[in-house]
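quick q for whoever's on today - can somebody do inverse folding on this one?? i tried earlier but teh output was garbage lol. tokens:
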């Protein structure tokens, strides 16, 4: 069984590739020695990293965001697995098209929540809807600013890969 997991961890302006496998942890290709379980019933983790002891208070927020406290300093960290990164990249590339820009399902899943209504004005990066796939919730965002055209799905609906979920009309393509 392959227990290899890859994450993209962003702290401030820095993004690190973190891979966890049977041999340990790689951070940007460098192997580190890290051991230490969660203290039972708490959000406190005690780690031994390359011989130095670290205690971290980790509080999970929404959509892969974590608040970490380490040595009296608070850090906001975004953790994204490989699948979520692919989904974000799929929905953030704005093709050069005329007409509404379709926001498509990156994989089969269940629409958990629609966060906009037809006619809403949205900025690039605004959450449009949440799709659950493989037991993980993924927020699909507006690849460009514009107005919400047609919404083709409702919460609770199952969708297929590449199904059009929402039509987004960029401002330069709106008709008067």
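ok took a stab at it. sequence:
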């Amino acid at each position: 069984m392959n227990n290899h997991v890859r994450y993209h961890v962003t702290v401030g302006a820095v993004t690190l590739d973190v891979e966890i496998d049977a041999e340990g942890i790689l951070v940007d290709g460098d192997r580190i020695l890290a051991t230490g379980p969660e203290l039972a019933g708490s959000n406190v983790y005690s780690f031994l990293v390359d011989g130095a002891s670290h205690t971290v208070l980790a509080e999970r927020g929404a959509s892969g965001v974590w608040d970490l406290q380490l040595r009296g300093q608070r850090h906001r960290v975004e953790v994204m697995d490989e699948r979520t990164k692919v989904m974000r990249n799929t929905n953030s590339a704005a093709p050069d098209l005329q007409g509404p820009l379709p926001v498509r399902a990156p994989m089969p899943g269940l629409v958990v929540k629609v966060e906009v209504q037809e006619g809403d004005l949205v900025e690039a990066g605004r959450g449009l809807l949440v799709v659950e796939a493989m037991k993980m919730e993924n927020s699909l965002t507006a690849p460009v600013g514009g107005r919400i055209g047609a919404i083709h799905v409702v919460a609770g609906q199952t969708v297929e890969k590449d199904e059009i979920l929402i039509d987004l009309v960029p401002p330069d393509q709106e008709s008067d």
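fwiw The chain has a mean pLDDT of 80. also The domain at 5-81 is CATH 3.30.700.30 (Glycoprotein, Type 4 Pilin). so keep that in mind when u check it
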